[in-house]
Design brief:
By secondary structure, the protein is α/β, with parallel strands linked by helices. It is 40% helix and 16% strand. The relative contact order is 0.16. The model has no long low-confidence stretch (mean pLDDT 92).
Length: 320
């Protein structure tokens, strides 16, 4: 860890890794803020099971947010610093319950501060359902790669694979999956692998703008090497229920019921959760609390430039 980062961490009025019981299991969270009394931002990462970059190993990495907010980073159970073997009893609703428990813990510890949720991809499912369950505790939601309908099932995605350099064998398998109303876990993994290798669905191929965050996490004193490895190979390997539920998800009715401010940031190249679907939904729903910010040259995984815009939108909403 470099001296500048160490100096910043030391200057923060709150910067600690603590244990919280969520779902009856002790789990680590990182809480960091330059000044006490700042609004709280709980980051809910994607995957499921991929905590980078907003993870327990991110202490001192994001002063742009922690100078204005108290950031809370939680490696969701089963990955990173909270690696744990997940059986299929750990379904979507179980993760929603853990998220709700964490929100209640934070409001109990910081009762006077506003609290915002930031959901990224899979995390947007948790942030939406938590906002519906606890509107009196959450002041607003910001989501990147908002899940609305089944990921990687749009006509645009299937067309992108068909027009890609993928081998004909892969294209044939994808065509077969397209006609399946509910693909198997094996088929879901095949779709995801094809999307990463042959399309810009997740992000522009060759884009390495996020590499500094990875280096920073590896240098963290809060993350052991096995924690870093568990960002990629972890307790989600034997869990099938989460992917099955995601493959048939439809959140339009739930999103229409949200009454707190809800801002969605979407990359125009995102074929995992297409911005077009979100835009059409917002326009048809006519809900004043829903807002969409679109980004050119961005896919499903946010680049540092998109994250910077997210921080700015957060600061504007909170007035800090």
């Amino acid at each position: 860890m470099d001296r500048k980062r160490k100096k910043y961490i030391k200057s923060c009025e709150i910067s600690e890794v603590c244990n919280v019981s969520l779902g009856g299991i002790k789990q680590k969270i990182l809480i960091e803020g330059f000044r006490k009394g700042s609004p709280i931002v709980l980051f809910l990462h994607g995957g499921p099971g991929f905590p980078i970059p907003f993870c327990v190993g991110a202490r001192g990495l994001f002063p742009d947010v922690t100078k204005r907010f108290t950031a809370v980073y939680w490696d969701q159970l089963g990955c990173g610093a909270n690696n744990y073997p997940l059986t299929d009893r750990f379904d979507t609703e179980e993760f929603v319950r853990m998220t709700e428990q964490l929100v209640r813990y934070l409001k109990g510890r910081f009762p006077m501060e506003k609290l915002y949720l930031v959901g990224i991809s899979w995390g947007s499912v948790l942030s939406l359902k938590t906002a519906l369950a606890l509107p009196h505790l959450v002041n607003g939601v910001f989501s990147v790669g908002q899940v609305l309908m089944p990921p990687l099932r749009s006509e645009e995605f299937f067309a992108a694979v068909e027009n890609s350099a993928a081998p004909e064998k892969i294209k044939a398998q994808i065509r077969e999956i397209k006609s399946c109303p509910l693909p198997s876990v094996k088929q879901i993994l095949l779709i995801s692998a094809a999307a990463r290798k042959y399309t810009d669905a997740y992000g522009m191929k060759g884009d390495r703008r996020g590499k500094n965050s990875m280096k920073g996490i590896m240098a963290s004193k809060d993350y052991r090497f096995k924690d870093f490895l568990a960002c990629f190979n972890n307790g989600y390997r034997k869990n099938t229920i989460l992917l099955q539920e995601l493959s048939g998800i439809d959140l339009r009715q739930e999103l229409a019921c949200v009454r707190i401010p809800y801002t969605i940031l979407g990359g125009m190249s995102d074929l995992v959760t297409p911005v077009k679907d979100v835009k059409e939904f917002i326009e048809s729903s006519e809900l004043e609390n829903l807002k969409l910010i679109e980004f050119e040259n961005e896919g499903h995984i946010p680049t540092p430039e998109m994250v910077e815009k997210l921080f700015s939108a957060l600061a504007e909403a909170a007035g800090v």
